[in-house]
Design a protein that fits this description.
globular; 2 domains; 6-stranded mixed beta sheet; 3-stranded mixed beta sheet; about 25% strand; 9 helices; Rossmann fold; binds magnesium ion; alpha/beta; binds guanosine-5'-triphosphate; GMP Synthetase, Chain A, domain 3; about 300 residues
Protein backbone atom coordinates (compact mmCIF):
# COMPACT_ATOMS: atom_id res chain seq x y z
CA UNK A 1 0.00 0.00 0.00
CA UNK A 2 1.49 3.38 -0.93
CA UNK A 3 2.00 5.89 1.87
CA UNK A 4 1.64 9.67 2.11
CA UNK A 5 0.12 10.50 -1.23
CA UNK A 6 -0.31 14.20 -1.92
CA UNK A 7 -3.73 15.78 -2.45
CA UNK A 8 -5.29 12.41 -1.84
CA UNK A 9 -8.79 11.75 -0.54
CA UNK A 10 -10.34 8.59 0.85
CA UNK A 11 -13.50 7.70 2.69
CA UNK A 12 -16.71 5.76 3.08
CA UNK A 13 -19.70 6.76 0.96
CA UNK A 14 -23.04 5.28 2.02
CA UNK A 15 -25.78 4.55 -0.52
CA UNK A 16 -29.02 4.94 1.40
CA UNK A 17 -32.65 4.98 0.33
CA UNK A 18 -35.97 3.19 0.29
CA UNK A 19 -36.09 -0.49 -0.61
CA UNK A 20 -35.91 -0.89 -4.41
CA UNK A 21 -34.51 2.64 -5.01
CA UNK A 22 -31.70 1.21 -7.14
CA UNK A 23 -28.82 1.34 -4.63
CA UNK A 24 -27.27 -2.02 -5.48
CA UNK A 25 -27.67 -1.45 -9.23
CA UNK A 26 -25.82 1.84 -8.81
CA UNK A 27 -23.02 0.26 -6.78
CA UNK A 28 -22.48 -2.35 -9.50
CA UNK A 29 -22.47 0.33 -12.21
CA UNK A 30 -19.99 2.45 -10.27
CA UNK A 31 -17.57 -0.45 -9.98
CA UNK A 32 -18.41 -2.08 -13.33
CA UNK A 33 -18.45 -5.32 -11.35
CA UNK A 34 -21.31 -7.25 -9.84
CA UNK A 35 -20.72 -6.96 -6.10
CA UNK A 36 -24.22 -6.53 -4.79
CA UNK A 37 -27.26 -8.58 -5.70
CA UNK A 38 -30.23 -6.95 -7.40
CA UNK A 39 -33.88 -7.88 -7.84
CA UNK A 40 -37.15 -6.23 -8.73
CA UNK A 41 -38.45 -7.13 -5.25
CA UNK A 42 -37.90 -4.73 -2.33
CA UNK A 43 -35.64 -5.66 0.60
CA UNK A 44 -33.13 -7.62 -1.46
CA UNK A 45 -29.99 -6.31 0.26
CA UNK A 46 -29.75 -7.51 3.86
CA UNK A 47 -26.21 -6.74 4.95
CA UNK A 48 -23.99 -3.88 3.85
CA UNK A 49 -21.89 -4.53 0.76
CA UNK A 50 -18.71 -2.60 0.10
CA UNK A 51 -17.40 -1.68 -3.31
CA UNK A 52 -13.97 -0.07 -3.52
CA UNK A 53 -13.19 2.39 -6.30
CA UNK A 54 -9.59 3.43 -6.85
CA UNK A 55 -8.86 6.65 -8.72
CA UNK A 56 -5.51 8.40 -9.20
CA UNK A 57 -6.13 10.81 -6.34
CA UNK A 58 -8.81 9.06 -4.30
CA UNK A 59 -10.16 5.83 -2.94
CA UNK A 60 -13.91 5.69 -2.47
CA UNK A 61 -15.34 2.88 -0.40
CA UNK A 62 -18.99 2.76 -1.41
CA UNK A 63 -21.26 1.02 1.07
CA UNK A 64 -24.56 -0.32 -0.23
CA UNK A 65 -27.10 -0.56 2.59
CA UNK A 66 -30.44 -2.34 2.97
CA UNK A 67 -33.48 -0.20 2.18
CA UNK A 68 -34.80 2.06 4.94
CA UNK A 69 -37.63 0.59 6.98
CA UNK A 70 -39.39 1.07 10.26
CA UNK A 71 -39.58 -2.03 12.35
CA UNK A 72 -39.03 -3.11 15.91
CA UNK A 73 -38.63 -6.86 15.58
CA UNK A 74 -36.93 -9.73 13.82
CA UNK A 75 -34.98 -9.42 10.61
CA UNK A 76 -36.58 -6.08 9.72
CA UNK A 77 -35.26 -4.58 12.94
CA UNK A 78 -31.81 -5.80 11.91
CA UNK A 79 -32.18 -4.26 8.42
CA UNK A 80 -33.07 -0.94 10.01
CA UNK A 81 -30.14 -1.08 12.46
CA UNK A 82 -27.79 -1.94 9.63
CA UNK A 83 -28.79 1.22 7.71
CA UNK A 84 -28.36 3.36 10.83
CA UNK A 85 -24.86 1.91 11.37
CA UNK A 86 -23.86 2.37 7.72
CA UNK A 87 -24.82 6.06 7.98
CA UNK A 88 -22.98 6.42 11.31
CA UNK A 89 -19.76 5.05 9.81
CA UNK A 90 -19.94 7.03 6.56
CA UNK A 91 -17.95 10.12 5.63
CA UNK A 92 -20.49 11.06 2.97
CA UNK A 93 -24.08 9.89 2.52
CA UNK A 94 -25.88 9.59 -0.81
CA UNK A 95 -29.65 9.87 -0.39
CA UNK A 96 -31.16 7.89 -3.23
CA UNK A 97 -34.70 8.87 -4.14
CA UNK A 98 -36.41 6.87 -6.84
CA UNK A 99 -38.15 9.15 -9.35
CA UNK A 100 -41.50 7.63 -8.42
CA UNK A 101 -41.08 8.01 -4.63
CA UNK A 102 -43.64 9.98 -2.64
CA UNK A 103 -42.96 13.35 -1.02
CA UNK A 104 -43.49 11.75 2.38
CA UNK A 105 -40.71 9.25 1.74
CA UNK A 106 -38.35 11.93 0.47
CA UNK A 107 -38.96 14.02 3.59
CA UNK A 108 -38.45 11.04 5.85
CA UNK A 109 -35.20 9.94 4.21
CA UNK A 110 -33.70 13.40 4.07
CA UNK A 111 -34.78 14.03 7.68
CA UNK A 112 -32.93 10.90 8.82
CA UNK A 113 -29.79 11.81 6.90
CA UNK A 114 -29.81 15.42 8.10
CA UNK A 115 -29.96 14.18 11.69
CA UNK A 116 -26.68 12.34 11.13
CA UNK A 117 -24.98 15.70 10.41
CA UNK A 118 -22.89 14.05 7.70
CA UNK A 119 -22.12 15.71 4.38
CA UNK A 120 -24.70 14.35 1.95
CA UNK A 121 -25.97 14.57 -1.61
CA UNK A 122 -29.45 13.95 -3.03
CA UNK A 123 -29.64 11.63 -6.02
CA UNK A 124 -32.81 11.04 -8.00
CA UNK A 125 -32.62 7.51 -9.41
CA UNK A 126 -34.62 5.81 -12.18
CA UNK A 127 -34.98 9.16 -13.98
CA UNK A 128 -35.96 7.19 -17.10
CA UNK A 129 -39.32 6.46 -15.44
CA UNK A 130 -40.28 10.14 -15.65
CA UNK A 131 -42.05 10.63 -18.95
CA UNK A 132 -41.61 13.91 -20.83
CA UNK A 133 -41.66 16.97 -18.59
CA UNK A 134 -43.04 15.22 -15.51
CA UNK A 135 -41.16 15.86 -12.28
CA UNK A 136 -41.04 13.69 -9.15
CA UNK A 137 -43.73 14.24 -6.51
CA UNK A 138 -41.03 15.43 -4.09
CA UNK A 139 -39.65 18.02 -6.53
CA UNK A 140 -41.30 21.01 -4.80
CA UNK A 141 -39.91 19.87 -1.48
CA UNK A 142 -36.35 19.84 -2.90
CA UNK A 143 -36.92 23.31 -4.37
CA UNK A 144 -38.39 24.79 -1.17
CA UNK A 145 -35.54 23.42 0.90
CA UNK A 146 -32.99 24.44 -1.74
CA UNK A 147 -31.56 20.97 -1.86
CA UNK A 148 -29.21 20.46 -4.79
CA UNK A 149 -29.60 17.13 -6.53
CA UNK A 150 -28.39 15.08 -9.45
CA UNK A 151 -30.72 12.99 -11.54
CA UNK A 152 -29.52 9.67 -12.95
CA UNK A 153 -30.68 6.58 -14.76
CA UNK A 154 -28.29 3.78 -13.94
CA UNK A 155 -29.97 1.37 -16.33
CA UNK A 156 -30.09 3.73 -19.32
CA UNK A 157 -26.73 5.46 -18.85
CA UNK A 158 -24.44 3.97 -16.22
CA UNK A 159 -21.42 6.01 -17.25
CA UNK A 160 -23.24 9.30 -16.90
CA UNK A 161 -24.62 8.17 -13.53
CA UNK A 162 -21.07 7.37 -12.41
CA UNK A 163 -19.69 10.74 -13.54
CA UNK A 164 -22.55 12.75 -12.02
CA UNK A 165 -22.19 11.00 -8.70
CA UNK A 166 -18.41 11.29 -8.57
CA UNK A 167 -18.51 15.00 -9.35
CA UNK A 168 -20.65 15.55 -6.24
CA UNK A 169 -19.05 13.05 -3.90
CA UNK A 170 -15.32 13.55 -4.52
CA UNK A 171 -15.11 17.10 -3.13
CA UNK A 172 -16.84 15.94 0.08
CA UNK A 173 -14.38 13.14 0.84
CA UNK A 174 -11.88 13.70 3.65
CA UNK A 175 -8.21 14.15 2.84
CA UNK A 176 -6.13 11.08 3.51
CA UNK A 177 -2.48 10.09 3.51
CA UNK A 178 -3.29 7.11 1.37
CA UNK A 179 -5.89 4.48 0.57
CA UNK A 180 -7.91 2.78 3.33
CA UNK A 181 -7.79 -0.63 1.64
CA UNK A 182 -5.32 -2.40 -0.58
CA UNK A 183 -5.82 -1.02 -4.08
CA UNK A 184 -6.15 -4.51 -5.56
CA UNK A 185 -9.38 -5.16 -3.64
CA UNK A 186 -12.74 -4.22 -5.10
CA UNK A 187 -14.82 -5.51 -2.20
CA UNK A 188 -14.31 -6.70 1.36
CA UNK A 189 -16.80 -9.54 0.92
CA UNK A 190 -15.36 -13.04 1.01
CA UNK A 191 -15.90 -15.53 -1.82
CA UNK A 192 -18.14 -17.51 0.53
CA UNK A 193 -20.31 -14.46 1.14
CA UNK A 194 -20.44 -13.65 -2.58
CA UNK A 195 -21.44 -17.23 -3.41
CA UNK A 196 -24.19 -17.23 -0.75
CA UNK A 197 -25.51 -13.92 -2.05
CA UNK A 198 -25.64 -15.17 -5.65
CA UNK A 199 -27.70 -18.15 -4.50
CA UNK A 200 -30.03 -15.78 -2.64
CA UNK A 201 -30.31 -13.59 -5.74
CA UNK A 202 -31.31 -16.57 -7.87
CA UNK A 203 -33.88 -17.49 -5.22
CA UNK A 204 -35.27 -13.93 -5.30
CA UNK A 205 -35.51 -14.17 -9.07
CA UNK A 206 -37.34 -17.48 -9.26
CA UNK A 207 -39.45 -17.62 -6.09
CA UNK A 208 -42.52 -15.54 -5.44
CA UNK A 209 -44.64 -13.86 -2.79
CA UNK A 210 -43.31 -14.13 0.74
CA UNK A 211 -40.94 -17.03 0.11
CA UNK A 212 -37.75 -15.03 -0.73
CA UNK A 213 -38.21 -12.95 2.43
CA UNK A 214 -38.15 -16.04 4.62
CA UNK A 215 -35.16 -17.53 2.87
CA UNK A 216 -31.55 -17.43 4.00
CA UNK A 217 -28.48 -19.08 2.52
CA UNK A 218 -25.66 -20.77 4.37
CA UNK A 219 -22.47 -22.09 2.82
CA UNK A 220 -21.77 -25.46 4.46
CA UNK A 221 -18.59 -26.25 2.58
CA UNK A 222 -16.42 -24.36 0.11
CA UNK A 223 -13.51 -26.29 -1.38
CA UNK A 224 -11.26 -24.30 -3.68
CA UNK A 225 -9.98 -27.26 -5.67
CA UNK A 226 -8.64 -27.48 -9.22
CA UNK A 227 -10.18 -27.67 -11.72
CA UNK A 228 -13.61 -27.53 -10.04
CA UNK A 229 -14.60 -25.50 -6.96
CA UNK A 230 -17.03 -27.49 -4.81
CA UNK A 231 -19.65 -25.56 -2.87
CA UNK A 232 -22.24 -27.14 -0.60
CA UNK A 233 -24.98 -24.78 0.33
CA UNK A 234 -28.11 -24.78 2.46
CA UNK A 235 -31.27 -22.80 1.78
CA UNK A 236 -33.13 -22.14 5.00
CA UNK A 237 -36.85 -21.53 4.83
CA UNK A 238 -38.94 -20.33 7.75
CA UNK A 239 -42.08 -22.39 7.08
CA UNK A 240 -42.47 -26.14 6.60
CA UNK A 241 -44.76 -25.70 3.58
CA UNK A 242 -42.15 -23.55 1.78
CA UNK A 243 -39.70 -26.42 1.56
CA UNK A 244 -41.61 -28.23 -1.17
CA UNK A 245 -42.02 -25.03 -3.19
CA UNK A 246 -38.29 -24.28 -3.06
CA UNK A 247 -37.47 -27.84 -4.12
CA UNK A 248 -40.17 -27.86 -6.83
CA UNK A 249 -41.63 -30.78 -8.68
CA UNK A 250 -38.91 -33.47 -8.94
CA UNK A 251 -36.38 -30.89 -7.75
CA UNK A 252 -37.01 -28.58 -10.71
CA UNK A 253 -37.03 -25.29 -8.78
CA UNK A 254 -33.85 -26.10 -6.88
CA UNK A 255 -32.22 -27.03 -10.17
CA UNK A 256 -33.23 -23.71 -11.75
CA UNK A 257 -31.94 -21.72 -8.77
CA UNK A 258 -28.73 -23.76 -8.69
CA UNK A 259 -27.88 -23.43 -12.35
CA UNK A 260 -28.61 -19.66 -12.34
CA UNK A 261 -26.42 -19.09 -9.27
CA UNK A 262 -23.66 -21.42 -10.49
CA UNK A 263 -23.18 -19.39 -13.69
CA UNK A 264 -22.81 -16.18 -11.68
CA UNK A 265 -20.35 -17.74 -9.23
CA UNK A 266 -18.31 -19.23 -12.07
CA UNK A 267 -18.06 -15.82 -13.70
CA UNK A 268 -16.63 -14.27 -10.53
CA UNK A 269 -14.29 -17.16 -9.72
CA UNK A 270 -13.22 -17.67 -13.32
CA UNK A 271 -13.42 -21.37 -12.61
CA UNK A 272 -15.85 -24.22 -12.99
CA UNK A 273 -18.11 -24.71 -9.97
CA UNK A 274 -19.99 -27.71 -8.63
CA UNK A 275 -22.85 -26.30 -6.58
CA UNK A 276 -24.85 -28.59 -4.34
CA UNK A 277 -28.02 -27.13 -2.81
CA UNK A 278 -30.04 -28.46 0.14
CA UNK A 279 -33.19 -27.09 1.70
CA UNK A 280 -33.75 -27.02 5.47
CA UNK A 281 -36.61 -25.68 7.57
CA UNK A 282 -36.00 -23.45 10.59
CA UNK A 283 -39.49 -22.54 11.60
CA UNK A 284 -39.72 -18.80 12.39
CA UNK A 285 -36.00 -18.04 11.95
CA UNK A 286 -36.73 -14.47 10.81
CA UNK A 287 -37.95 -13.73 14.34
CA UNK A 288 -35.42 -15.78 16.28
CA UNK A 289 -32.52 -13.65 17.62
CA UNK A 290 -30.21 -16.64 18.06
CA UNK A 291 -30.59 -17.86 14.47
CA UNK A 292 -30.43 -14.31 13.10
CA UNK A 293 -27.09 -13.95 14.86
CA UNK A 294 -25.89 -17.30 13.54
CA UNK A 295 -26.72 -16.20 10.01
CA UNK A 296 -24.78 -12.97 10.46
CA UNK A 297 -27.91 -10.84 10.60
CA UNK A 298 -26.64 -8.77 13.48
CA UNK A 299 -24.90 -5.40 13.34
CA UNK A 300 -21.21 -5.87 14.04
CA UNK A 301 -19.92 -3.27 16.46
CA UNK A 302 -16.26 -2.42 15.90
N1 LIG B 1 -36.17 1.89 -14.70
C1 LIG B 1 -35.09 1.77 -13.95
N2 LIG B 1 -35.00 0.73 -13.10
C2 LIG B 1 -33.89 0.64 -12.31
C3 LIG B 1 -32.84 1.59 -12.37
N3 LIG B 1 -31.90 1.23 -11.45
C4 LIG B 1 -32.36 0.09 -10.88
N4 LIG B 1 -33.54 -0.28 -11.40
C5 LIG B 1 -34.35 -1.48 -11.08
O1 LIG B 1 -34.89 -1.33 -9.79
C6 LIG B 1 -35.00 -2.60 -9.13
C7 LIG B 1 -34.35 -2.56 -7.78
O2 LIG B 1 -32.96 -2.37 -7.92
P1 LIG B 1 -31.94 -2.64 -6.73
O3 LIG B 1 -30.62 -2.13 -7.17
O4 LIG B 1 -32.02 -4.06 -6.27
O5 LIG B 1 -32.55 -1.69 -5.61
P2 LIG B 1 -32.06 -1.52 -4.09
O6 LIG B 1 -32.26 -0.09 -3.73
O7 LIG B 1 -30.70 -2.07 -3.92
O8 LIG B 1 -33.15 -2.39 -3.32
P3 LIG B 1 -33.05 -3.08 -1.83
O9 LIG B 1 -31.78 -3.85 -1.77
O10 LIG B 1 -34.24 -3.95 -1.82
O11 LIG B 1 -33.14 -1.97 -0.85
C8 LIG B 1 -34.35 -3.60 -10.09
O12 LIG B 1 -35.37 -4.26 -10.80
C9 LIG B 1 -33.50 -2.73 -10.99
O13 LIG B 1 -33.31 -3.28 -12.29
C10 LIG B 1 -32.96 2.67 -13.31
O14 LIG B 1 -32.09 3.54 -13.46
N5 LIG B 1 -34.10 2.70 -14.05
MG1 LIG C 1 -30.01 -3.52 -2.69
Amino acid sequence: MSENKENYRAGFVALVGQPNAGKSTLLNALLEEKVSIVSDKPQTTRSRVTGIMNLDNAQIVFVDAPGTLKSTSGINKYLQEEVVDVIAKADVVCALLAAEASEEHAKELIGTIRKSKKPWVAIITKADLLKGTRTPKFFNFLMEEQIPFVSISTLKNGEEARNELLSRVLPLLPESKGPLYDEDLYTTQTLRQIAAEFVREAAFEHLREEIPYGLAVRILDFKEEEPVVRIRCELLVDKENHKGIVIGSKGSMLKTIGSHARKEIERVLGQQVFLELHVAVKEGWTKNPRILKELGYVVTKE
